[in-house]
Amino acid sequence: LYLIKCVLLRLFFGIFSNNFGIEHPVRQVNSIYFDTDNLNFFKDNLNGVSNRFKYRFRWYGSNRNFNLKLEIKHKSNMSGWKNFFDLGKFYSYRDLMRYINLKNFNNISSLSNKNLFPVLKTSYKRYYFISNCSKFRATIDQDISIEKIEINNMSSFPIFLFKDVLEFKYRIKEDFKFRNSRMLSHYPFRISKFSK
User: Which of 95, 97, 133, 163 is packed most tightly, with the most Cβ within 10 A?
Assistant: First the structure.
């Protein structure tokens, strides 16, 4: 616990030392990811396939009275972008599971030209920051949990990762400036891939 707190404090220190300010209030981020029965999207991510996709449901806040969106995330080499589709309001997580049980993810399959199924739920607390020049954004994710989706069983248990994740986001044209700035000197951690 002490080590985790120290790491998190170091992350926040690095953010504010680089003239970042708070961009958005802290909020809970929840996602349900879709994949093929052979987990092709997951394998593409592990293998570093340059052109790949993610399909997910996403909502913010608690599991009650939330607005649900379908996000299609495109990744091409170092750049990425998203498409959003509003799926309406849900009054509980149970309602969402009923929606999924009614095979409403078939619409997602038609968008991807693949048979997709819900496979994983993730949840975490996200902090949002933006640099004074507005060219760089950063997020810190805390209290990350993952949970296998069981379509006919709502009693699956979450697994907590006990990791905090710092991510920087910026336009491709700012990459050289970012990598050669003093920002990264505040973070004595190895940069690695961590997909949520």
Answer: 97
Closest CA to 143 of 164, 122, 112, 119: 164
Q: What is the mean pLDDT of residues 20-49?
A: 90
What percentage of the chain has pLDDT greater than the value 90? 30
CA geometry: angle at 179 spanning 174 and 183, to 5°? 105
Q: What is the pLDDT of residues 183-195, one digit of tens each?
A: 666 666 565 555 6
Among 8, 9, 33, 12, residue whose Cα is nearest residue 21:
12
Residue 11 backbone phi and psi in degrees, to 5: -60, -50
Q: Is 64 helix (H, G, I), strand (E, B) or coil?
A: coil
Task: Tell me the pLDDT of the chain averaged across its residues.
Answer: 81
Cross-strand bridge partners of residue 52:
75
Residue 66: strand, helix, or coil: strand
**Scanning the structure block, which residue is given the tokens 């697994």?**
159
Q: How much is the pTM?
A: 0.82
Q: Judging by beta carbons within 10 Å of its beta carbon (0-12, 13-18, 19+), is residue 161 exposed, middle or buried?
A: middle
C-alpha–C-alpha distance, residues 119 and 184, integer Å: 35
